[in-house]
Amino acid sequence: MLGTQPPRRVAMPTHGLVERLSRLIAGIGLAALVVLAIVSVLDIVGRELFKTPIEGFSDIADLLVVFAAAACFPVSLAEGHHVAVRFIGQLHWRLWETLELLGHVLLLAVLTLIVWQLTIFAVDVYRSSQTTWLMHIPVWPLWTITTLLLAACLPVQAVVVWEQLRRVLSPVPLASLHAEETEGSGLQGEGRLDGTD
Questions:
Q1: CB burial class (10 A; 0-12, 13-18, 19+) of residue 170?
Q2: Distance CA 126, CA 4 (A)
Q3: How far apart are CA 118 and CA 154, in angstroms?
């Protein structure tokens, strides 16, 4: 209605401890990428200038890339940096938040399945004593760490689900978690702040 004030927006921050831990893990992963970049430069310089490339470089690169990618998953979930397609606009805010909750619950289920399968794979790799092709580095420590890093996503995503549930049960519309996506788009924001129940 004209002349009425929109409902008060209430922010609900991500759980601080989970976010700090996720950033620490991501920092370790980024450090692995820096090491990979340095080793890549040394390999190129050695190959081009001295005709002596680093033996087993591909083995090292494969191990570091898997570790770095897994380390960035928790912070992506905690801070909502993953890709999400939102194509439904002008919905009642509570229905919108309920659909978001459904998406988070489904993601938690998929992550649980991935961690379960990775655990089975890591155990198989350990039992078969698999190694890399050139340097014969055992790969079970990498896959164990990767499994643990992805397992760390489960409590992170559980916190995201809990916070989204609180948004669904809130008596008033909360501040949009995706304000930067909705500014000027006219697709989401208006329908979420209509103030009706």
A1: middle
A2: 65
A3: 13
Q: What is the C-alpha separation between 79 and 156, in angstroms, rounded? A: 10
Determine if the pTM surpasses 0.85.
no
Q: How is the chain split into domains, by residue range?
A: 16-82+89-178
Q: What is the mean pLDDT of residues 30-42?
A: 91
**C-alpha to C-alpha distance for 35 and 43, rounded to whole angstroms:** 12
pLDDT single digits (tens) 42-67:
989 988 888 888 888 888 898 889 88
Q: For 19-29, what is each residue's pLDDT tens digit?
A: 888 888 899 99
For the cut 90, the answer to whether the pLDDT of residue 95 exceeds it is no
- Nearest-angstrom CA–CA distance, 173 and 5: 13
Complete DSSP assignment for the chain: -TTPPPPPPB--PPPHHHHHHHHHHHHHHHHHHHHHHHHHHHHHHHHHHSS-PPTTHHHHHHHHHHHHHHHHHHHHHHHT-S-------S--HHHHHHHHHHHHHHHHHHHHHHHHHHHHHHHHHHHHT-B-SSS--B-HHHHHHHHHHHHTHHHHHHHHHHHHHHHHH-SSPBPPTTHHHHTTT-SSHHHHTS---
Is residue 178 predicted with pLDDT exceeding 80?
A: no
